Every structure is written in structure tokens, then in C-alpha cells.
Amino acid sequence: MVQPFVFSLNRAQPEALVDQIVREVERALAGRTLHAGTRMPSIRSLAKAHGISTFTVVEAYDRLVARGTLVARRGAGFFVAGAAPGRDAGAPQRGGTPEVGPAASEVTNAWLLSEIFADDSIAVKSGCGWLPDSWLDEDGLHGALRSLSKGPGAHFAHYGHPHGYGPLRQWLTRRLGELSIEAPPERIVLTQGATQALDLIVRTLLKPGDTVLVEAPAYCNLLAVLRLAGLNVVGIPRTEAGLDLAALEQAAQTHRVRALFVNPALQNPLGTSLTPASAHRILQCAERHGFWVVEDDIYRELAPAGTPSLAAMDGLSRVIYVSSFSKTISPSVRVGYLACSRDMAHEIARSKMVAGLTSSEINERIVHAILTEGRHRKHIERLSDRLTRSRARLVTQLRSHGVALLAQPEGGMFVCGSLPGAAQSARELAEAALLESIMLAPGEFFLAHNEPCRWFRFNVAYSDDARLFRFLDKAASGKLAA
């Protein structure tokens, strides 16, 4: 049986409700009214008991999980940390066996960012953020591994350079030069994917309480990084042409902004790109108000030629450029990079060493071998063509099933749309879909404060499935089981 957890919230206080919940849980643990292994109230029951939004409880629980105070167990709920695995009083049972199937899961940010990667039981992963293995450069990976295995073992036995594998940084200097971004190797730092690059930028430039701007909607992993760092996150609406420039200027005047994080090309989740005029005005605003611009550009290779680059326009003066090879070669190699001023690159490399020492030179050698073997550009062309065909087919299917698009994507992996006639919120529909082994990504996961909404992000590579469209039809007609 779930142990009662009683506390009060004071809406008259300036302290946010999320912070009050976190404080009360940690106070109860310190006062021994909560004990290791205690199952916490479900998100819905705690929200109902205090008359607050489920999104407030989700954010509080996510923060407590990140602090190690709680642990999230799929199919069972949230527990006070410290219980022996599999021995949780109150965990739901079926014939003595804990529930582990997707039907028992609640769709939360923590689930989307962690457990979905390990859950192979979900049949339709329309909401995921990666491409199928067969779409990636598996032949290039195999060839690179064979080539590197023939080299001397000493090449793999040592720590790498703090900035990363030199020949790969030299290759990137040439590649960025093709984009009109001047970045010699000493201004490039290799990382474990773009997410680590973003994390290192946050660690190096920002401190808890700083205000940063993000797009609304924005990349959900970025939002998690910023929340974990204790930053004040302000969303700026993303329009068809780019950012809402009036809202950007207003936020810059209202807050002491330290950084803006932006996807210029094939933005995740909308799939749109900045216009040259929008990019120019973003840089003007950053210059007037003195904040950094972090350009997350991981979809550049899939974007139409001529899509503007903030780093190219700025010359890496106020812009920090981030990218990776996860979407074009493979996410398993975990190779990303950033480019910035020479002094900042030195500071970020120092943060990288403190946080986890060097990145994997073996993986960086694999990526370098693939890039220099000569077939990578052909692979990108094939991948872009495949995405174009799949995206066009998905857009047609979604519209035929009553889904209204948020924006017309210009390319890339994602399409966003809503069901205007559905009675439930996107998160409620996502939870209902999970009962049918369909993974959806509700729009609130891409908003700074998990604001309730009615739209989803669909992955074009995983959404051509009749089960998905049968579910959308039922949701639109109100025929989902209660």
C-alpha cells in the first residue's frame, strides 16, 4: 500500500510550486516521515490531492530523480531512493510478478529521455528521436572498424587529446570552411555527442539562476540539461520564418539574458529553418543585449543548400557552434563537436576533462575513417532522399486522418501536428497510446515549462504504421477506452 505523504503548498509564496514540492519531499526524508523504498503517490493522485497541474508534479519528480532523492521504476512509479530492487512494498503485482510492460508506464520527461532507449517492447515508436539502423551508415561503420583493426594496437591504448582526435578536428576545419565558418583545429572541441557539447557549454558559461532563452518548442534534451543546471528558462515562440523577433527583444529587455539556444536548420521538433533576415536580427539582438548564441546545428547535412548559419554570419565571435554525427553516421559512436573562440575552446576543454576526461579517441577515429573513405556524401544523399519520400507520405497520411500540421517542415526527420477534435490533452493521449504499444511524443515535452498542449512530434521514419493511424482515428472520434 502507498504510504501517505502529507504536506501543504502555499500559493501566496514567491517560491515556485515545483520548488515547494521538492523541499517538502526532502524535508520529509530528513525528518524520517519518508523512508527508503516508500512508494510515492502517483503523479495524478498527488496533483489531484493538491489541486495542481500534473505537469508541476512531473517537473518536481524529475528534479528529485535527478538529485537522487527518488528513483523512477517503469511500471511501478516513483520510490524514495535506497530500496533493494524488486522488493518495493506497494509495487503492482500480477501473480507475484512486477508489471514491466509499457501498459503500466506513465509518459513523463524522464521516461522519454531514458527508459524509451531501453524498452524494446514498444511496437510503434512514432515519437522517438532517432533513425532506424538500416537508414544509417552501417556499411561505413563496418568498413571503418575493419580498417582500424589492422592498425597497431598502441593507437587505441591511451587517453586522447583534451580537444579530441587531431585529424578529425582538421577534417572539421575544412568542412566548416565550406560553410564559411573559420574554425582552425584549436577552436574545435570533440565531445560525446551534441548533448555533451551543450552540457559543457552550460557548465562553462552559466551558473544556477542565470536566465537563458530557448525556442518554443525546443529540443527536449536541451531543456533537461538546462533544468538540471538550475537555470531560469524562458521560451521564445518559433514561427515558420524563425523566432518571434518581437518576443525575443521583449525577453532580452525584461531579463538579464546570458544565452540563447537555437536550431537554425531543420529545427527539432518543427522541421523549419531560419530565414536569412531572422538570423540577422537574432545576431543584432544578441549584440545589443550582450548574450551568447548557442547554435545547435546537427541537421545541417540534411538541410537545403543556402540555409543560413549563425556562426558563418557572426564569425564565432558571439556564437558557439554545436553539431554531431549521430543523425547521419550513427548515434552509437557518440561523436559530436563544438566550435568557438580559441580562449573559450580552452575553457570548455578544461570543463570536459573535469567532467569525464577525454572523449573516446577510438570512436573519433572511426568517424574520421568514415568521413575520409569517400562514400559519406553519397550516403547523405540517399538518406536525404529517403527522408523526403517518407516525410511527404507521412504528411499526406496525417492530413487524411484529421491531423493539423503546426508547420510545413522543410526537411529532416520530424513532423508536428495536432488532433483538433480530440477531447484529451496530448499527454493523456500519449498515455493511452502507450497502452496499445505506441510511443508518442506530446508537445509539452518540447516546451520550457511543460505547458499542456494538444500536439505531437512524429518521426517520419517510424510513423508509417497502420496501428498509429487507427489510434489517431479513435482519438479524434472520442472512441478511446476510458
From TrEMBL:
CDD domains in UniProt: AAT_like, WHTH_GntR
Keywords: DNA-binding, Pyridoxal phosphate, Transcription, Transcription regulation
HTH gntR-type domain: residues covered: 15-83
GO molecular function: DNA binding; DNA-binding transcription factor activity; pyridoxal phosphate binding
InterPro entries associated with the record: Aminotransferase_I/II_large, HTH_trans_reg/aminotransferase, PyrdxlP-dep_Trfase, PyrdxlP-dep_Trfase_major, Tscrpt_reg_HTH_GntR, WH-like_DNA-bd_sf, WH_DNA-bd_sf
Family: In the C-terminal section; belongs to the class-I pyridoxal-phosphate-dependent aminotransferase family.
UniProt cross-references to PANTHER family, sorted A to Z: HTH-TYPE TRANSCRIPTIONAL REGULATORY PROTEIN GABR (PTHR46577), TRANSCRIPTIONAL REGULATORY PROTEIN (PTHR46577:SF2)
Protein name, per record: GntR family transcriptional regulator
